[in-house]
Every structure is written in C-alpha cells, then in structure tokens.
Specification:
By secondary structure, the chain is an alpha/beta fold. It folds into two domains: 123 residues, NAD(P)-binding Rossmann-like Domain (Rossmann fold); 214 residues, Dihydrodipicolinate Reductase, domain 2 (2-Layer Sandwich), CATH 3.30.360.10. The protein is 36% helix and 23% strand. The protein contains 13 helices and 15 strands. It has a nine-stranded mixed sheet with strand order 14-13-12-11-7-10-9-8-15. A six-stranded parallel sheet has the order 3-2-1-4-5-6, sandwiched between helices. Helix 1 crosses helix 11 and helix 6 packs parallel to helix 10. The longest helix is centred in the C-terminal third of the chain and has 20 residues. Bound molecules: nicotinamide-adenine-dinucleotide (NAD). The site of nicotinamide-adenine-dinucleotide has 25 residues, from helix 1.
Length: 377
C-alpha cells in the first residue's frame, strides 16, 4: 500500500504531542511537509519528526507539495480560511476543534464540507478515547437504561502568570530562550481572537460527546465568572444542558480550582439501571481513563465493577483518531476498526458544538435559558 502524504498546518502543542507522533506511529502515512509562521516551532517540529520540508505559510506548502491530506492544528480563528484553502487544494482534512470562532465561519465550513468528495474529520478526539468508546457502546447497548443525568467536572489550576513573581520568572526564561507562554498556547486566555475563554476551548469536547451519546441538545443555561483581570474572557463556567432524550447534563469547567497540576476531569452518567463513573487524565499523559460501573443491584453491598481499558500509546486518543482518519483515507474505516463512517465528528457536528458553546455565553450574558431555535447556526 502506497504511503499517504500528509502535511500539517500549525506545529504547536497538539501537533507535537498528538498528530505528529500519531502519524509516525501509524506508519501508513508520511509526514512530508509542515507550515507554521513561528520559526522556532516549525524548525523544532520538522527536526523532531524528520519532516523534509517546512514552510512559513500554509499556502506555499499547498502550492508546492503534492499532498493527499492535511491536518489543521493552528489556533481556531485561522481554521476557516485555512480550511477553504485546503478544500481548494482538493485534500482530505483533519481539522482541530473548536471548528471556528464565529457562527458564520462554522456555517461556511459546514457548507463547504457538504458534498465535498473527500474525507473531512474534526478533531473531537474524545470520541476516540477508549473509555468514551466503551461508554458509548454501553449506552447504545442499553446497559444504563433510560439516562437521567450526566455530570462533568473538569477543573485545573492555572495561576495568574501575568503578574507578581511568576511574571518575573516567565520574563526571565523568555529572555533566555524559553517562551513558556508560546509553549503552552496562552492565546487561550489573552487573545481576543480566541472567541472565548477556557470554556470555549474545552466546552465543545463535552458538548460534542453529549450529542454523540444522547442526541440533540434542547437548551442551555450557563453562568460564567472572570477572576483574572488580565484574561480576556471567563475563567469559570457552569452550564446546564437539557437534552431531547429528557436527560439533564451539567458541565463545570474552570481554571481556578487549586489541585494537582493536570487537574481533574471527572464525570458520572446516571441511568435507570446503573451509573457510570469516569476519571479521565490529561490527554498528553497518554493514560487510559478510570471507568466504573455501579449496577442498581449492587447498591446494597456497595460494590462497583471496574472496567479495565487497554493502556499503551497505540490506545491513546490521538493515535486512534489518526488511525481512523487514515483508515478512512484508505477506505477501510468499516473493516479495520469497526467504527464505520459515522464515528468521527463531522464539520456540522463541530459547528453545532461551537454554536452551543456560544449559546452558553449568551445565556450567561443575558441571564436566561437559550433554546435550540435561538442557536446562532
Ligand atoms: N483535540 C484535542 O484534544 C486538542 C488538544 C489541544 C489543542 N487542540 C486544538 O488544536 C489547535 C491548536 O492548539 P495548540 O494547543 O496546539 O496551540 P499552540 O499555540 O501550541 O499551536 C498553534 C500553532 O499554530 C501556529 N500558527 C499560528 N498562526 C499560524 C498560521 N497562520 N499558519 C500555520 N500555523 C500557525 C503557531 O505558531 C503554533 O505553532 C486549537 O484549535 C486547539 O483548540 C485540540
């Protein structure tokens, strides 16, 4: 089988830790070119992953290279324009979430993807986490029965490094060649173009999972807070979603909660016959989640069943997501991993996830519930 030629737009954190290693590990594709205007990120990435050609602009890469597929892993306000360029170059596309920062851009991308004859997948990578895959199969298999509620608590602590002694340390390190703000992509907190704060970056993951597991969302009510003056958007959000299946989902996302460095990502799904409890680990740790099933019958003896998930790099979400993408490019998605063509998030799914995230912000601003009819797309 001839190896597919893949290019990456954006050589930052997710490419470094996720897509780059995943393409290498899969082995059925070659990373032939990358594009990134940042000299340091581009050069380091190309060296680390032995990419033969590196460009400062993605258009030059698209013009000069004969690619089969491209991964768009730049900040989200750039996705729409780069996506259009990749469509014009007739490439298969894996585009990172959040799809874009405005409903207009999301709709433009959804329209372009409709009827486009190539594979287009959005990096809602949690769909490829082995634990969430197991949960989806259990929900579909009726293990929980009717679902009443989902609760997700996703918190970590990011100190205010724009002031005090941390500012001094960051400035000192930057002067000596280590730019931690760039390394950790702090545009999320400080750049107006990011579209929102921490909830805009992470909310779409679980909004997408809610729809993937249970179907459409009917409404959202949300409260947000901004604690750091230096940030452009909120640092904490609590959103309550009502779903068409009658269940309720609560999502808390904050960077203010003091705890272990990689934070807490914990959830519960309560059903008629059983409850599922999960604890996911920061995706860059490459650890399988902890998953527990509490059956109704076991309430009295107070025991739960731990559900073991395979460990090791090839079972992590970025590897499995890339494997699925490459399977689809080879037209083997049904055969090799059994997921079929409808497992990955489509552009429309990702557009809806952004629309609900923006609806949550609107709810917080207007202090009222926002219903599906009012969605911005
Ligand atoms: N699916 C996931 O699990 C996951 C995890 C992390 C990040 N992400 C998403 O991936 C995207 C990138 O996030 P990140 O953490 O890697 O950010 P990052 O800041 O570490 O990397 C972004 C890279 O894009 C580059 N860039 C800027 N302008 C560019 C341009 N015009 N053309 C090409 N490259 C350009 C930057 O120089 C940087 O190297 C975001 O949309 C983010 O939400 C997804």
């Amino acid at each position: 089988m001839e190896k597919l030629k893949i290019g990456i737009i954006g050589c930052g954190q997710v490419s470094r830790v996720g897509h780059g290693p995943a393409i290498k590990k899969d082995g059925r594709a070659r990373l032939v070119a990358v594009a990134d205007p940042d000299d340091e990120n581009r050069t380091n990435f190309a060296r680390k992953f032995r990419v033969p050609r590196a460009y400062s602009g993605h258009r030059e890469m698209l013009e000069k290279e004969k690619l089969d597929a491209v991964v768009i892993a730049s900040p989200p306000w750039l996705h729409c324009a780069q996506f259009q360029d990749c469509i014009n170059a007739n490439l298969h596309i894996l585009c990172e979430k959040p799809l874009a920062t405005s409903p207009e851009d999301c709709m433009t991308m959804a329209r372009l993807a409709d009827g486009y004859g190539k594979i287009v997948q959005v990096g809602h990578s949690k769909r490829f986490e082995t634990g969430f895959e197991r949960i989806k199969n259990m929900i579909d298999g009726g293990v929980l029965g009717k679902v009443y509620q989902t609760s997700v608590y996703w918190h970590y602590y990011i100190p205010d490094f724009r002031k005090g002694w941390l500012r001094t340390v960051f400035d000192y390190l930057k002067k000596h060649g280590m730019d931690l703000e760039k390394k950790y992509g702090t545009w999320r907190y400080f750049d107006e173009r990011a579209g929102g704060g921490d909830f805009f970056d992470h909310g779409p993951h679980y909004i997408d999972l809610l729809r993937f597991f249970f179907g459409e969302i009917e409404s959202v009510y949300c409260t947000t807070r901004q604690f750091y003056e230096s940030h452009k958007f909120e640092d904490l959000a609590v959103a309550v979603f009502s779903l068409a299946n009658g269940s309720v989902a609560v999502m808390e996302k904050s960077i203010m909660v003091v705890g272990r460095p990689s934070g807490f990502e914990i959830g519960h799904i309560y059903g008629e016959h059983a409850k599922l409890g999960f604890e996911a680990f920061q995706e860059y740790q490459h650890r399988p989640m902890k998953l527990r099933l509490y059956k109704k019958l076991n309430i009295i003896p107070d025991i739960y069943t731990p559900l073991f998930l395979p460990g090791g790099r090839k079972h992590t979400l970025y590897y499995r997501q890339m494997k699925h993408f490459i399977d689809r490019l080879h037209d083997t998605a049904d055969g090799s991993d059994g997921k079929g063509d409808r497992w990955a998030a489509t552009v429309r799914d990702a557009a809806i996830a952004v629309a609900w995230t923006l609806a949550a912000y609107r709810s917080a601003a207007e202090k009222r519930e926002i219903r599906r009819e009012e969605l911005a797309i």
